[in-house]
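Task card 7
Instruction: Convert sequence to structure tokens.
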Amino acid sequence: MQGAAELRSSRVFPVISGVFFSVVFSVSNLNLCASQSIVLGWAPSPDPRTVGYFVHSEDLAGNPLSRSDVGLSTTAIVSGLGEGNSYVFYVTAYDALTLESAPSNEIIYQVPASVLGRYIFYNASEFDNNDAAPNASDDGAIAPDKLALLPGNTATFDNYTSYSGGINGIMLDIAGLKGTPGLADLAFHTGNDNAPVGWTTAASPISITVRSGAGVSGSSRVTLLWPNNAIQKRWLRVTVKATSVTGLATDDVFYFGNAIGEAGNSSIDAKVNATDEILARNNSRATGQAPIDFAYDFNRDSKVNATDQIIARNNPTSSVTALQLIQVP
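Output:
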């Protein structure tokens, strides 16, 4: 049972001391980067000889992992649990001579997977050696100045790119991933307003690949690719579903946008007009002089020249047609 505790009925122990083990608090998943925690609680032993409790953990094969002395506390937080792993917990009471009672009943807990990173990158650009295939060179094309727009927030220039290829590469770092996600495990929608429930289904990615251990804290890095300009001048909503493949307990939803030729010169809109063209002209750079986050390098070829000016000139938008700075519900 993902993301929850359950009794393991395959083994029943006598409860000599009267200790029994149950989750009296809601099971709490505390996101601790590449690990998680569970809050456990149990009823006190009625045996007057009890001076404390040990909390034991094992793997599913019965191999001991830890034993923690919690004194007379009847709750414990067990941390350092790896996403996607399953653990068995039980409690014993002990007396003044540290003699332990028979074990309580057991709890099995499978730690849900966790999304540790969400990225947009410039596929087939100068920064991944102009390579359109999914591979490790894509890491060099991740936009370091762009963040996923998460539910409850309002969009800014931090959440959309000006790339002339549109949105053609997304990455996810998932700890505890169970396999390679397919289209049944993911959903993609595009739109440009504050009502994403009504957005249209986006083009499916042309490839979904996984590089185990390549993500943050050794997580799995999932790379999603689209053809150039299959998604452009709009917002893309990505939903990573809670399935047996992803291992997530709940769906993970995030957004990235694209406004070709927009230099981020306004905090109140994302219109593309003559100002963006002029900014590109006034910020020319030779080959190799424009870093990946240089706002005026619209085609991400590490330089700013007439090509970038033309990109802005050929993609004008108005207040009606521009990418909207949406507020995500």
